[in-house]
């Protein structure tokens, strides 16, 4: 690190759990963020402020006025621009040293197979189960840690799925792909604005711990937040040995 970086990241370096070595790992890290909306906004901003060297953002949408209630990476003057372009501008304003790769495309299996292989950590900030399962399958295939977040109405959840750990479940262990799940969208169900900030920030924290090696992650635990009374609850997640995605991988 140069003198400017030592100053910029001094509050991380002062932490015994991070230190210079951990911050250098963050600077060398590559985070893949699927979705640049409500969850992806705080994720991108905090990863950038912490100094993650390379952030790849994947989103096929453009900024809309209705996004501004909760998607804090976007602004009025960027309405109509691709979200990946808008988020990249927000990242550059915070930390111009961070390399941002914007992919304005829906994340399908072929794209994810390529991008996940290049990343050190993957953050699922999307809003539909089909994409979540595609992200999970690619992470299992390439043995990449996955930080998954979700938020709708007043309800949020966070989990880390780490295929490098034989005891860790994958997303499909918890939410089987063959189960019929009814999609719920913010456009029809609503979402409490700060909720996506809370869950997205927690995702960023988990990703930074993966990259730096500081502390332990929430692998094997589903953390749920009820935004009505701000109460947290946790459920331990066992691995499913017959999981159609990770069963044979272990």
Describe this structure in words.
The chain starts with a helix and ends in a 14-residue tail after the last strand. An eight-stranded mixed β-sheet has the order 3-2-1-4-5-6-7-8, with helices on both faces. Strand 5 (about 145-150) and strand 6 form a beta hairpin. With about 250 residues, the chain is an alpha/beta fold. It has ten helices and eight strands. The model has no long low-confidence stretch (mean pLDDT about 95). It has one domain (about 15-235): NAD(P)-binding Rossmann-like Domain (Rossmann fold, 3-Layer(aba) Sandwich), CATH 3.40.50.
Query: Beta-strand percentage?
Result: 15-25%
Q: How many structural domains can be distinguished in the coordinates?
A: 1
**What is the CATH architecture assignment?**
3-Layer(aba) Sandwich
Number of strands: 8
Q: What brief labels describe this structure?
A:
250 residues, alpha/beta, Rossmann fold, 8-stranded mixed β-sheet, 10 helices, 8 strands, 18% strand
Summarize it.
This protein is of the alpha/beta class and 250 residues long.
Topology overview:
Elements (H helix, E strand, L loop, with lengths): L2 H6 L1 H4 L5 H9 L2 E5 L5 H11 L3 E5 L24 H12 L4 E5 L5 H10 L2 E4 L4 H14 L3 E7 L2 E7 L9 H4 L11 H4 L3 H20 L8 E6 L4 E6 L14
Helix pairs in contact: 4-5, 4-10, 6-7
